Here is the input.
Amino acid sequence: MTAELGHIALIMAFMMALLQAGFPLAGAQQGVPVWMAIAKPAARAQFLFLLTAFVCLEISFIQNDFSVTYVATNSNSSLPTYYRIAAVWGAHEGSMLLWATILGLWTFAVTLFSRSLSDEMLARVLGVMGLVSIGIQLFILTTSNPFERIVPAPPEGNDLNPLLQDFGMTIHPPMLYMGYVGLSVAFSFAIAALLGGSLDSAWARWSRPWTLVAWIFLTFGIVVGSWWAYYELGWGGWWFWDPVENASFMPWLVATALIHSLAVTEKRGAFKTWTVLLAIFAFSLSLLGTFLVRSGVLTSVHAFASDPARGLFILIFLAVVVGGSLTLYALRAPTVKDSAHYTLFSKENLLLVNNILLVVAAASVLLGTLYPLLLDALGLGKISVGPPYFTAVFAPVMAPIFLLAGMAPMVPWRQGDIKALVKRVAYVFEASLVLGIVLVVTLLDRSDFVTMAGLSMALWLVGSAGLSLYSRVKLRANFWDGLRAQSPSVYGMTLAHLGAAVFLVGVVISNHYSQEKTVKLAPGESVELGPYAFRFQGVKDVVGPNYRAKEGSFQVLKGDSVIAELAPQKRNYKVQRNTMTEAAISPGLLRDLYVAMGEPLDKGAWSVRVYYKPFMRWVWLGGLFMMAGGALAVSDRRYRLMGRRAEASEGAGVVAAS
Amino acid sequence: MRMRFVIPLGVFVIMVVFLGIGLKLDPREVPSPFIGKPAPAFSLPQVASPERTFGDANLKGQVSLFNVWASWCVSCRQEHPFLMQLSKAKVIPIYGLNYKDERDAALGWLEQFGNPYLTSAFDADGRVGINWGVYGVPETFVVDKKGVIRYKQTGPITEQVWTETLFPLIQKLQAEEVGA
Here is the structure.
C-alpha cells in the first residue's frame, strides 16, 4: 500500500508541477494576475506531494518491503536502520527521487522568501522551476519508478553496495544534491529576468543569497565526498579526477565565478549578460553531471546501473533546458545595456579576469572528462584521461586566480591606481615569497620549487587578505570600532580566501611529502615510515550486523612512546560477497597516519599498506573555511532587509581607500 | 555583431551531438579476452549431487549456454522466468555455474522457482568464476561445439537480447561443422 501511495503522490506532484509551470508563465506573459497567483500554492502543494512520495519510499525501506523491486535490490533485513534510511538514495531511482524532492524543497523555500519579488517575477521564477520539475518527474515516472513491485516478492533483499555502507553515504549525496539543485534557483531567476527583460541590479541582489547558499552546500558535498573517498576506498587518495567527481567540480567552479560576477552586477550594474550566462552554465553543468552519471556514457567508479533509454531521456531534457535557455539568451542578451563605466585597471576588470580563469578551468575539466567520449565517437579508439592531464592543465590556470584573489579586494571599483597598489602590496608579496622559500628550504626539501611556489602563494593570500582587512579597519579611529564596522560579507570574503590558502597548503604538502609502504608483516613485526613505526600485533575476528571481519591491531610508535592504536578491518559482506577494506586512520592537524590491510599471507602474516600524510586535513579544512565564509556572507543584513530600497551608496562605502 | 551571443548555443549543440553518439557506445564494452578462446578448464562438484563433477569437457560437442547464477542475486530472479521458457523450448542446453553460493540456498532456490539447468556446477569460493572472467552475476557465456567461448552476455538475458543477439548467433554456431 505504501508504495502505491508514494506512486500516486509522485503523480500528483507532477500534476502540480504542470500547474506551477503553465498558468504562471502564461499569466506573466499576458498580464493575468489570477493565473500568476497559482504559482505559490501549486509550488507548495508540489513539495508536499514530493515529500509524501519520499517518505513512502523511506517507509518501504525501513519496513523491509522487498516486494518493491528497488528495496529488494538495495537493502537487506540485516542492514542497520540508519543505512536503510540512506539506502533510499543508494541507487538510481531513489537518488532521482531525492533530486526531485530537493528541487521541491528549494521551490518551497523560494515561495517563503519571496516577499520582495514582484508578482510577475515570482510567477516566472516559480514557473521556470516548475518546468524543470516537470522534466525530472516525467523522467522518474516513465523510466525510473522506484515504487515498482516485483512478483513474487523475494524473501530477502540484495543488500546495499558495501562501499556505500558508511557514514559518508548518509550526508554526501543529500548535500551534493542540495548544491546541484540549488543552482536551479539562480538559473530560474536568470531565465525569468531574460523573459521579463528586467536584467537589473535588483535581479542580481535576489540571486546572490540563493547562489551563495547553493554554493555552500555544493562545497560541503564535495568536501565530504573527498573525505569519504579518502578513508573508504583505502587508496589514500582524496581526489581522483573521476568523471563523476568532475561532474560536481565543474558546477562548483562556475558557481564560484557566478558569486563574484553577481557581486559586480549588483554593485556596479556591469557584466549583466555575462552573469546571466554563468547562471545558465552553472545549472547546465549540474544537469550535465546528472546525465554523465546516469547514462553510462563514461566509465566511473560511481558505477550506477546505466540504461540507454534513461540516457536518451536525460539528453533530450538537457537539450531542451539548456538549448532553450541559450536560445533565449541569444535572442534577449543583445538588447541588454551595461550602465557602468570603469577603466582598465579596476575591481570590475580584475573580477572579470578571475571569472574567465574559473570558466577556463571548468572548460578544461569538461574537455578532459568528455575527451574519451569524443575520441570513441570519432572512432579513434578508447582512451582514458587521467590525473597527469588535469594537473598539467589545472595548475597554470589556478596560479593566477590565487594571485588575483589576494589583489582584487584592495582595488577600488571604477578606477584603480596600479602604482599605488604595487607600492602597498610589494612588501607582502616579497615577504610571502621569501618566507615560502625559507620554510621549504629549512624544513623540507631545498630543490622542491613546486612546494615553494605553493606555500608562497598561500602566504601571499593570507598576507594580502590581512592587509586588505587592516586597511578597511583603519579607516575608523578606534581599532575595535573598525572591526565591528565591517559587514559580515567582508569577513566572509576574507575567510573564504583564507580557506583557499589553507586548501593550497594541504594540497601541496600532502602531495609532495606523503610516504607509503606496502609490506608483509607477521604478528610482532613492525615497519618504519618517516619518524613513525607501525607495529602489527595480530588479527582477530569481528562480527558486524551484516558482515564478518578480520580486524588487525596496530600500534604506532614515535620513538618509544605509543601515539596511536589503529584497527583496520578486512570485511566480508554476507549478502553481496564483497570484501571491503576499512582503513584505520589516526588524524591530526599536521599529519595523518593511515593503515589498510591487504591480503592474508602465510603463517598469520598480512600484506599491509601504511601511509604518512602530512597536512592532509588542511585540504578539507580549507573547504570548510570557504563554506564558513559563504555562510557569513549570506548572514549579511542586507539580504534580510531585501526591500526595494536603493543601495547605490553602499557600493562605494565598502571600498577601501587607496 | 550579435553573433557572439549565439556562440554558447552553437558550442552546446555540438556537445549534444557528441553526447548523443556517446549514448550508442558502451565504454565498458571492452572485448572480453576470453572470446574466441577455449573455455578455461575446471572440474567442480554438481549442485544437486556433490559426488559427481561437472567440467569444461561436458561443454564440448554441442552449442550451449553457460549461465552464472546465485540464489542471492536479484537480477537472476528477474532473468529466471526467461531461462525457464528457453529450457522448456529445448532450443539449447543450459548449464549453470552456481557462483559464491551456499548449497542449501541454491537447491531451495531451484526448488522454489524451477530448474532451467541440465546441470549446475557448484563454485562456492568463486575461483572458477574468476578464471572465466566473471565480474557480476548474472552472466552468460555461449560456448560452441569445440568448447570455445564465442560470446558473453553481461547482465540478465532479456527477450530483446535473445532475439537480437543470442538466437541468431546460436543458429549460426549450430550450423557450423565441428571439423571446420
